[in-house]
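Trying the structure run again after the queue cleared.
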Amino acid sequence: MKIARRNLILGSAAIVAGSAAVRQAVAAGNVDRKLTELNIVLPESGPAPVANYVPTLIEGSMVYISGQIPFRGKELAFKGRLGAELTLEDGRAATRIVGLNMLALLKKQLDGDLDRIRRVVRIDGFVSSAADFFQQAQVMNGISDLMVEVFGDAGRHTRTAVGVNVLPLNAPCQINAEFAVS
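Done. Tokens:
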């Protein structure tokens, strides 16, 4: 009787462990499914560095993404300053492109597994602005809204939005970010 009870307990433990593994396997791919639901197709990989730095770096449980500008392929999607050559809507679109590129960089850095992202921790954005343009925070909502769309509450983050006179390659924005990963 003791042996049968022990086997029953061990068998139950195996079933519980097995069902946890199944739940984890079913959960894998959640971010990719969400991207599909949102009709978002990520670039094959994020942009290559334009100077002497690495685009992503893992340290401990954090992934740091270097300052990114809004490339589509090898070309800037937008050029100029907000409030001069570009509108608020252009700026929001530019920061969203940077966000998509960051997700592509993360996917590459994390061996294709975006489900390893536990939280978007921080996003810092520099917005190339005319002297009388004061809507840097609204420009940065392009990337912030994307992160919340994709990751839900885990996409809510701390943020800085700074207006600057000029950015590399006449880009309208340059954004760096930090992500907590498992």
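The longest helix spans residues 2-27. Worth checking whether this holds up in the mutant runs.
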